[in-house]
Design goal:
With about 290 residues, the chain is of the alpha/beta class. Helix content is about 35%, strand content about 30%. Helix 3 (about 110-115) runs antiparallel to helix 4, helix 4 runs parallel beside helix 5 (about 160-175) and helix 5 (about 160-175) runs parallel beside helix 6 (about 190-195). The structure holds adenosine-5'-triphosphate (ATP). Pfam families: ABC_tran.
């Protein structure tokens, strides 16, 4: 049976104007799970609930075999938030000593290698690092205490494409060893499309879908057609649709079936961004 690094079951959190509603998904060992959703969808609330930073109202969270986050060794989890994770008046050399006393699994050799590899200066204060450097530094730290599960909130937002690509490569490196797993939230869906094994799409506090990425990319499709063809479509098969000028765009879950059934219509693959947009902004026929 597939081993899970993380499992959420019915996690619910009520705020005055927002409810994170019955969230269930899992992160299999050796995989990268991308949590996507627009601003305010509930991604950070989900991640904070997992880390025990926000107290959930109900539901269970099992992390690395334990349903109590306090019982999970801090060595085993790496956390990377958008922004400063560490006292920024210190430099990596000083912080390395701090981490050696915090993490029983701290590996100074890996730390120094990572800093050299990512051109992060040992003697420069973290507060003088650029945003991208801070992010790479946080991930290097997570590698250096050999964490098994890496959780990143908005790891690539606000970074240029080259640094984003480096960070995505770091995450792919991290899971090469099958025991390592990653949960990463982002609203840059193209980044997650490159690296994630599974995509969990959250909208207004609810999960819209949680699926293997390949299934989404290989199976979902968009039918492009005119009004008469749209009227003739089987409405049961339509997930959502949009009308642009004279063209209808229709999201379906089985592209090949649509190609065979509607030979006159154009059916094209859908990327994650398009799938997300259609779910959020598209019209419904049922
Ligand atoms: N401590 C809090 N008290 C009240 N409401 C909160 C609190 N924290 C978050 N919220 C609300 O919960 C909702 C979801 O916020 P959350 O930060 O989880 O979204 P997000 O998907 O991470 O968004 P973004 O991509 O913009 O970071 C928002 O409406 C937010 O205002």
């Amino acid at each position: 049976m597939e081993k899970l690094a993380l499992k959420l079951d019915g996690v619910t959190k009520h705020y005055k104007d927002f409810t994170l509603n019955n969230i269930s998904f899992s992160v299999p060992e050796g995989s990268i799970v991308g949590l996507i959703g627009e601003n305010g969808a509930g991604k950070s609330t989900t991640i904070n609930s997992i880390l025990g930073l926000t107290k959930k109202d109900s539901g269970t969270i099992t992390m690395l075999g334990s349903s109590n986050i306090d019982e999970v060794s801090k060595d085993e989890i790496g956390v990377v938030f958008d922004g400063n994770n560490y006292p920024d008046v210190l430099n990596p050399k000083q912080l390395g000593k701090v981490f050696a006393s915090i993490y029983s699994t701290w590996d100074m050799n890996t730390y120094e290698k990572m800093l050299t590899k990512f051109k992060l200066p040992m003697n420069k204060k973290i507060k003088n690092f650029s945003k991208g450097m801070k992010m790479k530094y946080s991930i290097s730290v997570a590698f250096s205490h050999h964490s098994k599960l890496l959780i990143l909130d908005e790891a690539t937002s606000g970074l240029d494409p080259i640094i984003r690509d480096e960070i995505l490569d770091m995450l792919l490196d991290f899971i090469q060893d099958e025991e390592h797993s990653v949960l990463v939230s982002s609203h840059i869906t193209s980044d997650l499309e490159k690296i994630a094994d599974y995509i969990v799409f959250i909208h207004e506090g609810k999960i819209i879908f949680s699926k293997p990425k390949d299934e989404l990319l290989e199976k979902y499709g968009i039918i492009k057609c005119g009004a008469a063809q749209f009227d003739a479509l089987d409405k049961e098969e339509i997930i959502a649709y949009r009308k642009q000028d004279y063209e209808w765009q229709v999201l379906v879950a089985d592209r090949q079936k649509a190609e065979k059934k509607y030979r006159k219509a154009m059916v094209i693959p859908a990327n994650i961004d398009e799938i997300m947009l259609m779910y959020v902004r598209g019209g419904r026929t049922r």
